[in-house]
Amino acid sequence: MKTEIFPGEESPEDIITYKRRKHKAKRQDVLAVFPSEEVHHELSEQEQYCSDCHEKLKELGSWPARKELVFIPAQLKRLDHIQHAYKCEHCSLNSETDKIIKAPVPKAALAHSYGSSSIIAHTIYQKYELKVPAYRQENDWQKLGLPIHRQDLINWHMKVTDYYFKPVYSLLKEILLTQAVLHADETSYRVLESDTQKTYYWTFLSGKQEKKPITFYHHDPHRSSQVATDFLGNYSGYLHCDMWQAYKQLPEATLVGCWAHVRRKFREAVPPTTKGKSLSKQGVHYCNQMFTLEKSWENLSNEERHQKRQEKLKPLFDEFFKWCRTNPPLVLPGSKLGKAIAYALNHEDTFKNVLLDGKLVLSNNLAEQAIKTLVIGRKNWLFSQSFEGAQSSAIILSLIETA
Hints:
Blueprint: H1 12-17, H2 23-32, E1 85-88, H3 89-93, E2 99-102, H4 117-129, H5 134-143, H6 150-176, E3 181-189, E4 199-206, E5 215-220, H7 225-232, E6 238-240, H8 245-248, E7 254-256, H9 259-269, H10 279-296, H11 302-326, H12 336-346, H13 348-352, H14 365-381, H15 387-402
Parallel strand pairs: 3-6, 6-7
Antiparallel strand pairs: 1-2, 3-4, 4-5
């Protein structure tokens, strides 16, 4: 008998070959990672008698009823380090003084401090990974019975940065400046001891294709070209960046403009009530075409991607900039659209530099994502008391984001 299939109904073959996701197996894999402890559920001595004949029950066996995870709240434990000493009887007999050998004791992270290495590491994780400010951590520690002040936490971070982290930080910078492609961005930050309302965090990080990428943060009172020049020096590679004038003063670097910035400016220029075509939407459409092409080439080699860009992206660039040059007479210079067109035309060569090498990318999103980490932290921390504290945060974040 032939089975009739109606529109929208699955065939028997489809039903048979359909594979469901094995949620149960996945859950078992997750549970298997954690250490286990057996909890046996047994009848009490009194309950081990039959309710009818009152004879003692015989146990038949046991089997797993269920598995569950339990949360163990944080707790503090005191470790008493006891140093043992040993005497060589033989050597002591033949010497005027006893030969005493003491077992080595690991050095404390900070001498005469509540801050052990594990406590300091946890406060760093709380502040820089979870963005929990010092005053909230202070409350949590005091609930656990540890009478520390928020300033203690900040001092710990500055001290371990100075004692342990700075050499690694310097090495990261040294390695970073040898790489062929970098990204850069900056954001404002408030430091109370500063004479100005704003100071700045700068970020410099590896290109997308680096096997061991580095994310580097630097704090400075200024946003001037001197900061970029002092940091990058005679760096002669490619630098993805926005069009902030500080980067234009670099003597050797080849700047690569961010097309995401261009697209964003055209999007902001689209009138909210526009339903049909508009010049702003045309600008966005050009940019979308560029990113669509790039997406289709992401698995190509650098050489293949470079060739594709010459064949397809370069003509699209030329068409876009020709369109930009055609439209200014129709657009008010002070309007959002006028500013978007001017932004693209004023930096045309820099935006076209992505065509120079297949390792380069269309946007500076990597740097913007790195800066976002700081921005989220800034919303919670609000400010730093001192320049030393702000730079300490830059160093710690560099190590965390690079790890």
